[in-house]
């Protein structure tokens, strides 16, 4: 075995490992004095242990009995010098990637409270990246307010205050009206459901358009990807029953994004609030009614404690996406494989979150009814149609005022014109089999549109 002898026994050198071990770790040995090359078995004993005297180098013929003459010894020694030099060069030419690097740590924040179901999607994305990156990239995800308020996440990512965020594009409607087209608008738009909308994002150019909006229109130093999807949102929570669109007039109603503009057209007095402030506002009477997300998320927020009439369905936000926002400088620093991990983690979380919400919403709707006395009301068809008409007016206004809004809206319309009619003829109506198997069951005790909920039965007088 060939090793390097630095003029002393490495195994008796004070403090540390042998130079041979240090070499394998890529440690520079410049601080050691020049070495001479010698060959001896690593198991040879020191002088104190009965071996050869210290200071004398092992003879090659002691290791290789076939080496007899001095000339052969010298030739063998020269060969060892060459081989040792090659070994030394190899030790110092370890690729940079082979040397262990410190993990990249991203600090990200969502626009959701810790109790919000959308935080499940935010945490799920971070967990998937951490699992796939093998410790090279770690994401620390926090809830709204940990670093900045919910509505400041985009600006914080742009400025580098946050490395990334998990948010909803509709929150940036005030910065640019086209942002709402990537979150959710009435009717899909153009009749698209969640799967249609997701297909437009990936196959119809939606993802590219959204990054164009952020980087070119808003001049944000940000890269964005679709994250967890959004289930169709109910019409909302009301303290009193509603029967037609006239019931909306003058009602103080919480909404966000383009939905806020739509409900203004219908005569509502709209108040824009982040999710965590809606229930307290209902409780204090700041608003009369409001919408947020879905049965599971709404229940976690506590809507059932301040309002009992839950109108379903709604058409103001039937589709949509959450988003992953990454500071562009941080994104550009990643290797190609880590970039792929981030993108595919976002895609994986879409499916994980969507299936989670279908399962959870159906369970939590039953809990709202059975444990909290919530009355599930069918939204009158008249209201749903008026919401679509109001959205058309809002969209027409922004198409005329903003060229980029018009560009995105035209892209969605062109895509929907092909996909929606196809799915309508190729897919059976959802109601067909649903009504056949479950129409009479009414497990959610839905009060049909146009009817008021039945009054609670009077208690029988107590017997004397």
Report on the structure:
The protein is of the alpha/beta class. It has three domains: 2-94, no CATH class; 104-234 and 317-371 and 383-429, 3-Layer(aba) Sandwich (D-Maltodextrin-Binding Protein, domain 2), CATH 3.40.190; 236-312, Periplasmic binding protein-like II (D-Maltodextrin-Binding Protein, domain 2), CATH 3.40.190.10. 42% of the residues lie in helices and 13% in strands. The chain is built from 15 helices and 13 strands. It has helices at 19-24, 60-63, 70-91, 117-132, 153-159, 194-203, 206-217, 258-265, 278-284, 295-301, 328-332, 336-372, 381-401, 403-426, 430-438, and strands at residues 2-5, 36-39, 104-110, 137-142, 164-167, 222-229, 236-238, 252-254, 269-271, 289-290, 309-312, 321-327, 375-378. The chain has a six-stranded mixed sheet, with helices on one face. A five-stranded mixed sheet has the order 4-3-5-12-6, sandwiched between helices. It is elongated.
What keywords describe this structure?
464 residues, alpha/beta, D-Maltodextrin-Binding Protein, domain 2, 6-stranded mixed sheet, 5-stranded mixed sheet, 13% strand, elongated, disordered N terminus
